[in-house]
Amino acid sequence: MAKSILSRYIDPEVLGKVQGTPVRPSGLVMGNLAGAHKSPLHGFAVEFAGHREYVIGDDIRHIDWRVFYKRDKYFIKQYEMETNFTCHLVLDVSASMRYGAKAQEKMLYGAKLLTTLGYSIVKQSDRVSLTTFDEKILGYVPSGNSMAQIQRMTEHLDEIEPKEKTDMAECLAEVSGRTGRREIVMVFSDFFTDLDALEQVLQRLKYQQHEVVLFQVLHHDELDFRFDGMIKFIGLEVPDELLMQPNELRNAYLSALGRFNDRFEEICQANRVERVLVDTSRNMGDLLVDYLNQRGQLKRAI
Question: Based on the domain organization, do 250 and 115 belong to the same domain?
Answer without folding.
Answer: yes
